Amino acid sequence: MRCDWEETFGHGLLLLETFVDPERFRGTVYRAANWTYVGNTRGFRRTRGGYSAHPESPKLVFLKPLRADAQEWLCSATLPSPYRLGESKMMLRAAEMQSLPAFFAEIPDPRRAEGKRHRLPTVLAIAAGAVLCGMRGYKAISDWAQSLGPKARRRFGCRWRKGRYEVPSEYVIRDVLIRVPPADLDRALRRWNELYAGEDESLAIDGKTMCNALDDQGQRTHIMGVVGHETKICHTQKKWVACP
Question: Measured between alpha carbons, how far is residue 18 from residues 21, 92, 116, 123 in Å?
């Protein structure tokens, strides 16, 4: 089964989870197969509008590690390859956007003086901001730059021309990135990261449906929280109402 899963989805499995209805079964087969009983659910069931208002049928929860060190891996800040999927990304705040160009100011500009429309720190800051927000490739970085609003363009130090802030084109971004030494970029980003990154290597994100918390239309309220893996600090919480 593990091989089939890895072949289909491209990553391995560390742990299996299953639920048993105690009104019908006792989980004897799972216990005999070395599954571990870890407790019961609260009994709320999923509905179209979120979850049921009252607990109805708590389930037994069984777990089966597929590796001896599965718990250690799952409790680590970041999963090692091939279990880690996707790339890190973030949402830049206004202060972070405005600060980025200054960290690239000391990098020598490899371009000729003639015909330059965009300052080097601005081009590098926009490219770095796009990558931090999950963009990959020159086209994606350029599209992200084009999507920036006037305030974001001003924070990055974009050139003001003909009544608007101009962002560098895909050609300019590519031309700059292939000329600037990667070591210079790495040093600049490390200094920026030391200033703005916290002690958390990774973040835990989880959502909950608040029981009996209904709005005037009878829709349930959901809470999404972001907690630092190392510091255990709740960085933010967002509330929204689910659509019917």
Answer: 10, 38, 61, 50
Cross-strand bridge partners of residue 145: none
Query: Of 102, 95, 107, nearest to 125 (Cα)?
Result: 102
Separation between Cα atoms, residue 156 and residue 179, nearest integer Å = 21
pTM (two decimals): 0.50
* Per-residue pLDDT at 37: 95
Q: Facing residues of 161 across strands?
A: 164
How far apart (Å, rounded) are the C-alpha atoms in residues 103 and 195? Answer: 11
pLDDT in tens, 202-235: 667 777 666 666 666 666 667 777 777 666 666 5
Q: How far is the C-alpha of 112 from the C-alpha of 103, rounded, in Å?
A: 21
